[in-house]
Amino acid sequence: MSPVAIKREQLLELIRSFGSAAVAFSAGVDSTVVANAAQLALGENAVAVTGTSASLASGELEEAESLAAQIGIRHIIISTDEFAEPRYTQNAPDRCYHCKTELYGQLDGLTERLGVNVVLNGANVDDASDYRPGMKAATEHDVRSPLAECGFTKNDVRALAEHWRLPVWDKPATPCLSSRVAYEEEVTPERLRMIDRSERLLREQGFRNVRVRYHRGDLARIEVPADEIAKLIPDEIRSQLAEQLRQFGFKFVTIDIEGFRSGSLNSLVQLTSTASPAKLP
Fold first, then answer.
1. Mean pLDDT across the chain, nearest whole number?
2. pTM of the predicted protein model
């Protein structure tokens, strides 16, 4: 057996040992693999739960519904209220902690009604090398990370998703829209709509890996892969893009010449926080 096949069997055995489980399901590749594994291991004793709020990018809820139907797992949608927490909207570097605290708190309240023993997330071992304050919330709420516990890297997760023919096996990372707002700039539904509309526009123009970062003064910083930046440079494309983003609410539009970097705003964390990389639960 290949190393990934061995980990696959370990993953199924671990999840089977829980007896029943709810999966925090975002429709990203990690949580989709966990949801599929939970369905294979637990059948009707598995349920996927998707939280929705203004921070969810357009199209993600629909994709979650489609994936859950394909997997065959029971699927529940809940509304989260992280925007009611001032420490979330103030957008300090620990913003994700308050978001996950809201999500896992709601899941805690659902476990008895859903008849499940444990809540699972999609964290893998690579996540421990990045700044992930949401992991602290997972630990506090006894959320399990079966991918990490079985030694799955991100590449392993994608390989297993491809083996299981899950259509998201090569899906780019899709963190919540709030992750595009520079730390210490307030997170508001209006700003997230500006970001969402801008990223959707760029995806419609063929850019698959794209971020529109919000910075002070309603400034948009566009990140696309370095080898695709040239597609944004022609005068007609550049002027039309700037005009459309201004219509969405941005006052200034810039292109980051370093190109797409997942989590690029985390490079600012050391300037504003003494936080250290997350430890997996």
1. 92
2. 0.90
